[in-house]
From TrEMBL:
This is Lipopolysaccharide heptosyltransferase 1. Belongs to the glycosyltransferase 9 family. PANTHER family: LIPOPOLYSACCHARIDE HEPTOSYLTRANSFERASE 1, TETRAACYLDISACCHARIDE 4'-KINASE-RELATED. GO terms for cellular component: cytosol; plasma membrane. It is an enzyme of class 2 (transferase). InterPro entries: Glyco_trans_9, LipoPS_heptosylTferase-I, LPS_LOS_Heptosyltrfase. It comes from the Bacteria.
Length: 340
């Protein structure tokens, strides 16, 4: 195996959670060149993994929104770059039209895709001359690793290796200095995924009482306003300035704990090894959650949002041992209710 192409185009959480596939391939084929095709919006994150030899990217999302001529020219140039190499194997672990088109355009001897029933869009099937096995009964992230390993005939270590190395920042982090910071990622991509502001405030006050300083990141003006509402209810909480993904990643890496919704940046916190709690309200925890006992945990589920005491218990479970309370679960619940 001399050259491998991974096709995973979007989104942030998926890009992050696919990094262990690279580590698995690197162990199985140490001398292989590993390339990755993705949307330009996520290319920098892939470049944080030194095991990826070449990142092929095009502004697909940007072109879909703006239909700009310059973006179209970039896409055309990226096709030429894609076809400049010949691959022993192309691995489409996305399974939709746009990823299938990339897989089809690549010069690959074997182009792997999911079986029809496992595809995100059935029409993607045209691109493949080989198929992964039936989707395993496990979460989406481990499922990708199983599919690729079974197809290429290797085994892997169950502990995922994300191998992300952040580039240095030119300026200081935006986090409050000299404090143990808890970052609360309250923002979501859809209203149905939100957790109520009052619950965020209650969680923030509880963390403040445990000696943490609350930091609230945001991406849109609406998210900034929601952060300001939470901060107004939590003593000492700060709404961070607008950050790039790289700046936000550094803030995550410097935080003592991260609590947030099922979003890409919270997946990044897990990948960077921070104590992390992910809250589910409208998506499947079993399918999209993560778990690293004592460090990362998912709570809530599909249309079953957790209450504050459940989130506080989850936070307790990922805190360093010296910081964990000796209180019983019942006392934790009472403390959470009393702080509202």
């Amino acid at each position: 195996m001399k050259r491998i192409l991974i096709v995973k185009v979007t989104s942030l959480g998926d890009i992050v959670e696919t990094q262990p596939v690279v580590s698995d391939l690197r162990r199985a084929f140490p001398s292989a060149k590993i390339d990755w095709a993705a949307d330009a919006a996520f290319a920098d994150i892939i470049r944080w993994n030194p095991a990826v030899d070449r990142v092929l990217c095009a502004p697909l999302r940007k072109f879909k929104k703006a239909r700009g001529w310059a973006d179209l020219k970039e896409i055309a140039a990226s096709i030429g770059e894609l076809r400049a190499e010949k691959y022993d194997v192309v691995l489409d672990i996305h399974g939709v039209y746009k990823s299938a088109i990339i897989a089809f355009l690549a010069r690959g001897r074997r182009r792997y895709g999911y079986k029809n029933k496992d595809l995100g869009e059935l029409g993607a099937a045209f691109a493949y001359n080989a198929r992964f096995g039936p989707r395993p009964r496990t979460d989406a992230w481990r499922g990708m690793r199983v599919s690729v390993a079974d197809a290429l005939g290797y085994t892997f270590d169950d502990t995922p290796d994300f191998n992300l190395h952040l580039p240095p920042l030119a300026t200081l982090s935006a986090l409050p200095q000299g404090a143990r910071v808890a970052m609360l990622f309250h923002a979501t991509s859809a209203d149905e995924k939100k957790w109520p502001i009052e619950r965020w405030a209650e969680t923030g006050r509880w963390l403040t009482g445990r000696g943490y300083r609350i930091a609230l990141p945001w991406g849109t003006d609406g998210e900034r306003r929601e952060g300001e509402q939470i901060a107004a209810l939590v003593p000492g909480a700060v709404v961070l300035p607008k950050l790039s993904v790289t700046e936000c990643a550094h803030c995550i890496d410097e935080s003592a704990i991260v609590v947030g919704m099922d979003t890409g940046l919270v997946h990044l916190a897990h990948a960077l090894g921070r104590p992390t709690v992910m809250i589910f309200t409208a998506t499947s925890r079993e399918h999209f959650g993560f778990s690293a006992p004592g460090r990362s945990v998912s709570v809530g589920d599909h249309f079953a949002p957790p209450d504050v005491p459940a989130v506080l218990s989850a936070i307790e479970s990922v805190m360093p041992g010296a910081e964990r309370s000796s209180a019983s679960p019942a006392s934790l619940i009472a403390a959470g209710q009393a702080s509202s």
